[in-house]
UniProtKB/TrEMBL annotation:
The keyword Kinase applies. Residues 33-141 form the Protein kinase domain. It comes from Nitzschia inconspicua. GO terms for molecular function: ATP binding; protein kinase activity. Keywords: Kinase, Transferase. InterPro entries: Prot_kinase_dom, Ser-Thr/Tyr_kinase_cat_dom. This is Protein tyrosine kinase. The keyword Transferase applies.
Length: 141
C-alpha cells in the first residue's frame, strides 16, 4: 500500500468531524486518479478501479477502489456512516480508507483495492483453510 493521503488516524488521536477531514470539496476524479474499470455497483453507489496519477518515490502507484455516491440523501448518509466507521479502523483484515472527497458535489470514498475475489468464489475449502478464514474474520471483529 502506498502513502496516500489518509483520514484514518491511529486510535487515540483527535479525529474531529468528518467534514473537517475532507481532502477536497470540489474534487475532480480525473485530476488525481485515473479510472480504468467498473468494479461493481450497489443500490446507490458505483465502484471504480482507480490509480493514483502522480506519485513520488515515497508513494507506490497502488490501485484503489473509488466508491461514488449516486447523490440521493440516503446513499450520502450511508456513505458518511461508512466513512466514519472505517476512519476509526486500523486492522490488516479491514479495508483501509485513504480519502473522503466530494466528486461533482457528491461524497466518495477512496479505499484500499482488494481485488483477490470473493471468498465464496473459492469453495470448497479444506478445514484448515476455512479455520484460517474464520480466524481472520474474528481478528477483524
Amino acid at each position: 500500500m502506498g502513502n496516500h493521503p489518509v483520514i484514518a488516524k491511529k486510535s487515540g488521536e483527535n479525529r474531529g468531524s468528518l467534514h473537517d477531514n475532507l481532502i477536497a470539496e470540489n474534487f475532480k476524479l480525473g485530476d488525481k486518479y485515473s479510472t480504468d474499470q467498473d468494479l461493481g455497483a450497489g443500490k446507490a453507489t458505483q465502484i471504480k478501479r482507480g490509480q493514483l496519477k502522480r506519485f513520488t518515490k515515497s508513494t507506490q502507484n497502488t490501485g484503489v477502489a473509488i466508491k461514488l455516491c449516486d447523490g440521493t440523501v440516503q446513499s450520502g448518509s450511508n456513505l458518511k456512516t461508512e466513512a466514519m466507521i472505517l476512519s476509526q479502523c486500523d486492522h490488516p483484515n479491514i479495508v483501509r480508507l485513504f480519502e473522503v472527497t466530494k466528486v461533482n458535489g457528491q461524497m466518495s470514498l477512496v479505499l484500499e483495492l482488494c481485488d483477490g475475489g470473493c471468498v465464496l468464489d473459492r469453495l470448497p475449502y479444506k478445514e484448515s483453510q476455512a479455520s484460517n478464514i474464520v480466524r481472520q474474520i474474528c481478528s477483524a471483529v
